[in-house]
Amino acid sequence: MRVLGLLALSTTSDETTRLILLLLMVLAVLLIITGCVIALITWRKRIKAHNAYIDTAQWDKRT
Question: What is the pTM of this model?
Answer without folding.
Answer: 0.58
